[in-house]
Amino acid sequence: MAMDWRAWHDQYDLADSSLARRLKVVQQQVGAALDDCPPGPLRVVSLCAGQGRDLLEVLDGHPRRADVRARLVELDERNTALASAAVRAAGLDQVEVLTGDAALTDHYRGMVPADVVLVCGLFGNITDFTAEPQPLAAGDSMFTFVGYGLLKQRSSDAG
Protein backbone atom coordinates (compact mmCIF):
# COMPACT_ATOMS: atom_id res chain seq x y z
CA MET A 1 0.00 0.00 0.00
CA ALA A 2 1.37 3.40 -0.96
CA MET A 3 2.06 5.99 1.71
CA ASP A 4 -0.51 8.79 1.94
CA TRP A 5 1.84 11.75 2.43
CA ARG A 6 -0.98 14.29 2.72
CA ALA A 7 -2.54 12.34 5.61
CA TRP A 8 0.90 11.81 7.15
CA HIS A 9 1.17 15.60 7.59
CA ASP A 10 -1.98 15.64 9.76
CA GLN A 11 0.21 14.66 12.72
CA TYR A 12 1.73 18.15 12.63
CA ASP A 13 -1.63 19.48 13.83
CA LEU A 14 -1.53 17.34 16.98
CA ALA A 15 0.33 19.46 19.56
CA ASP A 16 1.68 16.47 21.49
CA SER A 17 2.82 14.45 18.45
CA SER A 18 6.47 13.75 17.72
CA LEU A 19 6.07 15.46 14.33
CA ALA A 20 4.73 18.65 15.93
CA ARG A 21 7.67 18.68 18.35
CA ARG A 22 10.12 18.00 15.52
CA LEU A 23 8.60 20.80 13.43
CA LYS A 24 9.20 23.32 16.22
CA VAL A 25 12.87 22.32 16.42
CA VAL A 26 13.29 22.53 12.65
CA GLN A 27 11.57 25.93 12.51
CA GLN A 28 13.86 27.26 15.24
CA GLN A 29 16.90 26.08 13.27
CA VAL A 30 15.59 27.52 10.00
CA GLY A 31 14.98 30.88 11.67
CA ALA A 32 18.47 30.83 13.17
CA ALA A 33 20.00 29.94 9.79
CA LEU A 34 18.23 32.89 8.15
CA ASP A 35 19.40 35.15 10.98
CA ASP A 36 22.99 33.98 10.47
CA CYS A 37 23.08 34.64 6.73
CA PRO A 38 24.83 37.80 5.57
CA PRO A 39 22.67 40.79 4.59
CA GLY A 40 21.16 40.77 1.12
CA PRO A 41 19.26 38.32 -1.04
CA LEU A 42 19.04 34.70 0.11
CA ARG A 43 18.23 31.55 -1.85
CA VAL A 44 16.52 28.68 -0.04
CA VAL A 45 15.62 25.29 -1.50
CA SER A 46 13.57 22.61 0.17
CA LEU A 47 13.70 19.03 -1.11
CA CYS A 48 10.69 16.79 -0.49
CA ALA A 49 9.10 19.88 1.01
CA GLY A 50 5.74 18.39 1.90
CA GLN A 51 3.41 21.23 2.83
CA GLY A 52 6.35 23.57 3.42
CA ARG A 53 5.56 24.21 7.07
CA ASP A 54 9.21 24.12 8.12
CA LEU A 55 10.00 27.19 5.99
CA LEU A 56 6.70 28.95 5.25
CA GLU A 57 5.62 29.33 8.87
CA VAL A 58 9.04 30.81 9.69
CA LEU A 59 9.11 33.20 6.74
CA ASP A 60 5.64 34.53 7.50
CA GLY A 61 6.94 36.55 10.45
CA HIS A 62 10.69 36.61 9.91
CA PRO A 63 12.62 39.92 9.49
CA ARG A 64 14.52 38.42 6.49
CA ARG A 65 11.28 37.50 4.74
CA ALA A 66 11.75 39.98 1.90
CA ASP A 67 15.34 38.82 1.34
CA VAL A 68 14.39 35.17 0.79
CA ARG A 69 13.70 33.69 -2.61
CA ALA A 70 12.71 30.05 -2.13
CA ARG A 71 11.75 26.99 -4.11
CA LEU A 72 9.94 24.07 -2.50
CA VAL A 73 9.97 20.81 -4.44
CA GLU A 74 7.46 18.09 -3.53
CA LEU A 75 6.05 15.16 -5.48
CA ASP A 76 2.63 14.91 -3.81
CA GLU A 77 0.19 17.24 -5.59
CA ARG A 78 -2.10 17.51 -2.58
CA ASN A 79 0.78 18.72 -0.42
CA THR A 80 1.96 21.22 -3.03
CA ALA A 81 -1.61 22.55 -3.31
CA LEU A 82 -1.62 23.16 0.45
CA ALA A 83 1.85 24.72 0.33
CA SER A 84 0.81 26.97 -2.55
CA ALA A 85 -2.26 28.08 -0.61
CA ALA A 86 -0.06 28.89 2.41
CA VAL A 87 2.29 30.90 0.17
CA ARG A 88 -0.62 32.94 -1.19
CA ALA A 89 -2.20 33.42 2.26
CA ALA A 90 1.09 34.73 3.67
CA GLY A 91 1.81 36.93 0.64
CA LEU A 92 5.13 35.17 0.03
CA ASP A 93 5.37 36.12 -3.65
CA GLN A 94 9.06 35.20 -3.78
CA VAL A 95 8.38 31.55 -2.87
CA GLU A 96 7.76 28.98 -5.61
CA VAL A 97 6.14 25.62 -4.99
CA LEU A 98 6.98 23.04 -7.63
CA THR A 99 5.28 19.67 -7.97
CA GLY A 100 7.98 17.27 -9.06
CA ASP A 101 10.62 14.74 -8.13
CA ALA A 102 13.12 16.37 -5.77
CA ALA A 103 15.86 14.12 -7.16
CA LEU A 104 15.79 15.89 -10.53
CA THR A 105 18.44 18.60 -10.53
CA ASP A 106 16.67 20.65 -13.20
CA HIS A 107 14.16 21.66 -10.53
CA TYR A 108 16.88 23.70 -8.80
CA ARG A 109 18.12 25.61 -11.85
CA GLY A 110 18.52 29.25 -10.91
CA MET A 111 18.38 28.48 -7.19
CA VAL A 112 21.81 26.97 -6.59
CA PRO A 113 24.12 27.53 -5.02
CA ALA A 114 21.65 28.02 -2.20
CA ASP A 115 22.21 29.73 1.12
CA VAL A 116 19.94 27.35 3.02
CA VAL A 117 18.96 23.84 1.94
CA LEU A 118 16.20 21.96 3.74
CA VAL A 119 16.22 18.18 3.52
CA CYS A 120 13.88 17.45 6.42
CA GLY A 121 12.48 13.96 6.74
CA LEU A 122 13.94 12.62 3.53
CA PHE A 123 16.73 10.48 4.92
CA GLY A 124 14.47 8.87 7.50
CA ASN A 125 12.54 7.37 4.58
CA ILE A 126 15.57 5.92 2.80
CA THR A 127 16.51 2.59 4.27
CA ASP A 128 20.01 2.23 2.84
CA PHE A 129 21.93 5.41 2.22
CA THR A 130 25.64 5.77 2.82
CA ALA A 131 26.57 9.26 1.63
CA GLU A 132 26.35 12.34 3.80
CA PRO A 133 24.73 15.28 1.96
CA GLN A 134 27.14 18.04 0.97
CA PRO A 135 26.51 21.79 1.32
CA LEU A 136 25.81 23.66 -1.88
CA ALA A 137 27.50 27.01 -1.22
CA ALA A 138 30.21 28.49 0.99
CA GLY A 139 28.69 29.64 4.26
CA ASP A 140 25.45 27.71 3.68
CA SER A 141 23.41 25.59 6.05
CA MET A 142 21.75 22.24 5.48
CA PHE A 143 19.30 20.55 7.81
CA THR A 144 18.33 16.91 7.75
CA PHE A 145 16.28 14.79 10.07
CA VAL A 146 17.00 11.15 10.64
CA GLY A 147 14.15 9.39 12.38
CA TYR A 148 12.06 11.55 14.68
CA GLY A 149 14.55 13.55 16.63
CA LEU A 150 18.14 13.66 15.48
CA LEU A 151 18.85 16.95 13.78
CA LYS A 152 22.05 17.25 11.82
CA GLN A 153 23.22 20.70 10.83
CA ARG A 154 26.08 21.17 8.43
CA SER A 155 27.43 24.61 7.80
CA SER A 156 30.29 25.27 5.46
CA ASP A 157 33.11 27.44 6.75
CA ALA A 158 34.69 27.76 3.32
CA GLY A 159 34.32 30.94 1.44
TrEMBL record:
Domain (Methyltransferase): give its ranges: 27-127
Entries under InterPro entries matching the protein = MeTrfase_dom_put (IPR022744), SAM-dependent_MTases_sf (IPR029063)
Which branch of life, at top level? Answer: Bacteria
Q: What is this protein called?
A: Methyltransferase domain-containing protein
Name the species this protein comes from.
Answer: Actinoallomurus oryzae
